[in-house]
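Researcher: Hi, I'm a grad student and pretty new to this. My advisor asked me to get structures for two proteins we've been looking at. I'm not sure of the right format, so I'll just paste the first sequence and hope you can take it from there.
Model: That works fine. Here's the first sequence with its structure tokens right after it:
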Amino acid sequence: MFDTMTITKAGASLCAAFLVLLLGGWAAEGLYNVDTHGEDHVSGYRVALPDADAPAAEPEPEIPFEEVYAVADAGAGERLWRQCSACHALNVGQNGVGPYLAGIVGRPKHTAEGFDYSDGLLALEGDWTPENISSFIANPRGYAPGTSMSYGGMDDIEDRANLIAYLATQ
């Protein structure tokens, strides 16, 4: 049934398995454990907490949109237009999911021919000035509650100014 050779092979297999586990544990210890080598410090990230007694830092004043728009780059805005082109077109009368945006800067609100505006946009009055467009694309649902525009908004004021400068050229 069992001869000496079988028992020797089984014993050697157990020793080999033990050796693999031992070497694997040693390798894992070297890779995943940070040894301080007797130094007096703790491994990890240092997180600076604000001092409760220190005065709060003044927030940086936001640059007015008019100043940013005055130096806007229409070329950079053309690259940003690609996000908008999924729902809007720049050809007069070519409405998609959203109204066409040709001539949008300075145009009265909700006047794109053939587009069925949501109640949120129909409630707005006035023209699409660069400032109004900036406020709208920064937070569409905050500017026009009830709008059906599902865009989440564009946070960067320079990106908004560049995009509006591009739209002003169309």
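Researcher: Oh nice, that was easy. Here's the second one.
Model: And its structure:
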Amino acid sequence: MNFIIRWLVTAVAVGVAVWLVPGIEVIGGTEAWVAIAIFGLILSLINISIKPIMQVLSLPITVITLGIFYLVVNTLMLYVAAWLANGIFQAGVDIATFGSAFVASIVISIVSGIMNAIVGKD
């Protein structure tokens, strides 16, 4: 049940990022909400499995930059999720530039934090 809530929160956050950030577009032959749900699923799986490893490996740089590098790790996870979603399902999001992915990672982090506070998840 926790994973389903995490998936829904991530999908809503991705939908907000697609709506707000220029340079992030939904692609694929399916409807937009299906592509966002697929991308949200893959991003949730990456956040559970790969992201903690990347955070530990980048810990020295994160400490030196006072936590700013954590946003770069989030951006790289967006790129990995987009690559996997587009490669496996031919649906997901298209990221135009690193700047748009960086802003999208900030938007997704903020919206996820707000949504997790609403549903009561840490």
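Researcher: Is there anything I should tell my advisor about the second?
Model: You could mention this: The chain has one domain: 2-116.
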